[in-house]
C-alpha cells in the first residue's frame, strides 16, 4: 500500500512538471504608464510605446494609473498563424 501511494505521488509530480515545462516563457517591460483601459495598458520603454493587452485574469498590485512606474510580466501568444 505504501509503495502504491509513493508511486501515485511520483506520477502526480511528473504530470505537474510536464505542464510546467509546456508553459511559454515570461518577459518583462518596465516604464511609466501612458494609458490605462479595461483591456489595455500602454507603457513607455525608451522611445517606444508598448501596448500590453490585459483581461479579467490580470493580477494588479498597487494602484494602476497614468504616470505610475510599472513592471509588467507578460507572455507572447499567437493571435493567428498562416502556414504556406
How would you characterize this protein structure?
- The protein is of the alpha+beta class and 84 residues long.
- It has a domain of 54 residues: OB fold (Dihydrolipoamide Acetyltransferase, E2P), CATH 2.40.50.
- 25% of the residues lie in helices and 37% in strands.
- It is built from one helix and four strands.
- Strands 3-2-1-4 form a four-stranded antiparallel sheet, with no helix packed on it.
- It is globular.
- The model has no long low-confidence stretch (mean pLDDT 86).
Task: Tell me the helix content.
Answer: 25-40%
User: What's the number of helices?
Assistant: 1
Which strand order spans the largest sheet, edge to edge or round the barrel?
3-2-1-4
CATH architecture of the domain at 25-78: Beta Barrel
What would you call the structural class? alpha+beta
Report the mean per-residue pLDDT as an integer. 86
- Tell me the distance between the termini: 55 Å
Biggest sheet overview: 4 strands, antiparallel
Amino acid at each position: 500500500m505504501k509503495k502504491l501511494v509513493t508511486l501515485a505521488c511520483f506520477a502526480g509530480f511528473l504530470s505537474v512538471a510536464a505542464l510546467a515545462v509546456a508553459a511559454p516563457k515570461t518577459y518583462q517591460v518596465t516604464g511609466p504608464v501612458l494609458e490605462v483601459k479595461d483591456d489595455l495598458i500602454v507603457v513607455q520603454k525608451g522611445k517606444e510605446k508598448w501596448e500590453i493587452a490585459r483581461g479579467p485574469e490580470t493580477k494588479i498590485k498597487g494602484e494602476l494609473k497614468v504616470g505610475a512606474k510599472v513592471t509588467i510580466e507578460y507572455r507572447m501568444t499567437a493571435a493567428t498563424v498562416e502556414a504556406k
